[in-house]
Amino acid sequence: MADGVRALKLEHLHSGCAEIVSISAGVATLIPTPDAQPAELVDAADRQLYEAKHAGRARVASAMRPVTG
Description:
This protein has a domain at about 25-69. Helices cover about 35% and strands about 15% of the residues. The protein has helices spanning about 1-10, 40-55, and strands spanning about 25-30, 60-65. It is elongated and about 45 Å long. α2 links the parallel β1 (about 25-30) and β2. The chain is α+β, with helices and mostly antiparallel strands. It is built from two helices and two strands; from the N terminus they run αβαβ.
């Protein structure tokens, strides 16, 4: 997905950091259990997104999170 967005070469108007649009993404997986809550997966992906953004522009961070519920 990130490569696809970059390949579009969309102008990043009014940006001081890049000439084209890019994306960063956070990806998470888990093995579901009867006690697993959907919010656990969303929270894990959100944490990965912030890790990707912290690492720089146009990054993807991922992790498999154990379910503790």
